[in-house]
Specification:
Layout lengths: L9 H10 L6 H11 L3 E5 L6 H16 L9 E4 L3 H14 L7 E4 L6 H8 L4 E4 L1 H9 L10 E4 L2 H6 L3 H9 L6 E6 L4 H10 L3 E5 L2 H4 L4 E7 L5 H11 L5 E4 L3 H13 L4 E4 L5 H12 L5 E4 L1 H4 L9 E4 L6 H8 L9 E7 L4 H11 L4 E2 L14 H8 L1 H7 L1 H20 L1
Parallel strand pairs: 1-6, 1-7, 2-4, 2-5, 3-4, 5-6, 8-13, 8-14, 9-11, 9-12, 10-11, 12-13
The chain binds adenosine monophosphate.
Adenosine monophosphate binds next to helix 3.
């Protein structure tokens, strides 16, 4: 199957050729015909599968073919949770729509609005937006959703995780009822299915299983290592492997900053990207990483969602995520589209249950690397337990016999008090 066989029009084919895309990915092959026919779509797929092109190409094609004359109005709206993802989608659309007369732009929060409102005034066909800034500019009268013909809600599960449900509902309420709707989510728990029902009319669905996207293409390995030795293992791996770009995942923003500082002590230059950093700082770090100026980027899950670095050679899970689907998202950063990649995870004692959940989801055992210098480092006991051990009263409390004994002692004290 080629893009030509999917009946993609010449201006888009020409743009795809420049990108080096000749054959559609599975989601594109399945979704494009559904969308070109004007149906609603429920897509269960993660980033890395080619879903951006799967929804943008038919929208561009349909808008182009409608041959709309007159002042430009926003006719397609794509709402996505993070700024990075929004920028990336807009960037892709600019490529695919290069040989059409369509105009597209992106809006997101955390930056001044003047440049965005100036661009809006010039008239646009396609708008990519994060929810907060979109509602803000609607309420200020810079945007109307009255003319929307195509609505895409991207990364719906992440939207809900980030607490955007009310914003999403407000946006939906402002959309015309007559429209084509597309709903994408990497996972489909009940609350996501409920949300999709509010958005979609009669729809067709396409599911690209995470296993397809990960297990087949990404080489995965796990190192069992005590928490305190993780930084040593990371330093060791970065120093002994000739890797060009490494994305390291940290569960917390604080953790990400700490890793950057600790690596700096070993003269490894890394930058962190997470929600506490300004949009400019995040974009600067990302560009430095994409351009190869820095080799190591430390990211939290939300900031890294949608990061598209074509030559990402290695993903390291410095912390294992407690939600197994997040693991799939993370390792999907490497091995994108047709490339293959490597994903390494560090797992301390407390994270073993997370590993089991992940293996259950991806239906495979991850290879354990037993040979590394820190394999025999002792695992520190969890802090809480250590404190308990030091405190004999806590030891007593944990023993049920002691508990009864204490209760009896208290009772007799009470009765003694009464007697006194
Ligand atoms: P996405 O899932 O939209 O984030 O896309 C993942 C990556 O695949 C991006 O780097 C795209 O540019 C790339 N890509 C999308 N479609 C194709 C295709 N048909 N052939 C090769 N690469 C593609």
């Amino acid at each position: 199957m080629t893009f030509k066989e999917l009946h993609i029009i010449d201006p888009i084919l020409k743009a795809l050729e420049t990108q080096g895309y000749t054959h559609p990915t599975p989601i594109q092959e399945q979704a494009i015909p559904i969308l070109l026919e004007g149906n609603d779509l429920l897509g269960c797929a993660q980033t890395g599968t080619g879903k951006t092109a799967a929804f943008s190409i038919p929208i561009i094609q349909n808008l182009y073919k409608s041959n709309f004359q007159g002042r430009k109005k926003i006719r397609a709206l794509i709402v996505t949770p993070t700024r990075e993802l929004a920028i990336q989608i807009d960037d892709n659309i600019s490529h695919y729509a290069k040989h059409t007369n369509l105009k597209n732009m992106v809006i997101f929060g955390g930056v001044k609005q003047a440049k965005q409102t100036a661009n809006l005034r010039q008239g646009q066909d396609i708008l990519v937006a994060t929810p907060g800034r979109l509602l803000d500019l609607i309420s200020q009268g810079f945007i109307t959703l009255k003319h929307i013909e195509y609505f895409v809600l991207d990364e719906a599960d992440q939207m809900l995780d980030m607490g955007f449900i009310h914003d999403i509902k407000k946006i939906i309420a402002k959309l015309p009822t007559q429209r084509q709707s597309l709903f994408f989510s990497a996972t489909m728990p009940k609350n996501i299915v409920d949300l999709s029902r509010k958005i979609l009319g009669n729809y067709q669905s396409v599911t690209i299983k995470p296993e397809q996207a990960t297990a087949e293409k990404v080489e995965q390995a796990v190192y069992f290592v005590p928490k305190k030795s993780k930084i040593k293992l990371l330093t060791y791996l970065l120093q002994t492997n000739d890797v060009s770009s490494v994305l390291v995942f940290s569960r917390t923003k604080h953790g990400a900053n700490k890793v950057v500082k600790q690596l700096a002590k070993q003269e490894i230059i890394a930058e962190a990207i997470h929600g506490n950093k300004s949009q400019t700082a995040r974009q600067k770090a990302l560009n430095n990483f994409k351009d190869g100026n820095i080799k190591v980027l430390i990211a939290t899950d939300i900031a890294a969602r949608g990061i598209d670095v074509s030559k990402l050679s290695l993903v390291i899970n410095y912390d294992l995520p407690n939600i197994p689907e997040t693991y799939v998202h993370r390792i999907g950063r490497t091995g994108r589209a047709k490339a293959s990649g490597i994903a390494i995870s560090f797992c301390d004692r407390e994270e073993r249950p997370y590993l089991r959940d992940i293996e259950k989801l991806i239906k495979q055992k991850i290879k354990v690397i037993n040979e590394h210098p820190f394999v025999n480092d002792e695992e520190a006991a969890p802090t809480e337990q250590k404190q308990h051990n030091k405190n004999p009263r806590n030891q007593q409390r944990r023993n049920p016999n002691n508990r009864n004994r204490n209760r009896n002692r208290n009772r007799s004290n009470n009765s003694r008090n009464k007697r006194d």
